[in-house]
Amino acid sequence: MKVKNLHSWQVSPEKAREIQEKLRNKVVLKSSFKSISKIGFIAGCDVGYDEKKGRAYGSVVLLTFPELKLVEKKGAMEASERIFPYLPGLLTFREGPVLIAALRKLEKSPDIIIFDGQGIAHPVRFGLATHMGLLLGFPTIGCAKSILYGHYEEPVNLKGAYTFLKDEEGELIGTVLRTKKNVKPVFVSQGYRIDLDQALDIILTCCRREKIPEPLRLAHLETVQAL
DNA sequence: GCGACAG
DNA sequence: ATCTTGTCGC
After folding, report:
1. Residue A203 host element (H or E)
2. Which of A19, A127, A156, A218 is the most buried (most CB within 10 A)?
3. Chain C positions with a protein C-beta closer than 7 Å
4. Predicted confidence (pLDDT) per residue in A7-42, tens digit
């Protein structure tokens, strides 16, 4: 897929926060889909690390939707020295570069992309999925395995059960979704150009037998395979 | 000052 | 993310 010119990634943590503040106002949350039945292809991204070998691998898989059949998988390797440190709230600066390198290799463009991290459920409403969506100009969803920001109540122990994630002012920033019975829920939030209810619907549709939505699960496996 | 803190 | 043993349930 084609990717436009991006801003610099080689910045200080302070500069990174300035970039987030500067771009957060450009975020569009209104869905670009009248219905998710319009989605034909969905992509999932993940990054894996191997400190011993000193490298990281970003992988992307493209699946049909809602059948979830694999049609493409691409990846990109990056040396540890060139990777931004992990700092809560600045994950995009660590994983964004290698993920974009992998995304550019996709021959076909997805209709929507899922990221292993938060969307607007972030201190400045600009998590990995939101930031990537704005830069790429594509609809995105954030699906994290743990919380970064906000408060919530545990959803009941049934697949499909969910509660709302809210910020300090009680404003809705995402949902806590149980994608499988007897497992911890995942944190789903709007990334870019997608409604929260559609994001929930899409994530649930991507969860067949496993807890992690298929696009992210397969991308993760590729990451393990490559490192 | 003391926790919390995506991956 | 990664480290790290056994263990509970489908």
Report:
1. helix A196-205
2. A127
3. 1-2, 9
4. 999 999 999 999 999 999 999 999 999 999 999 999
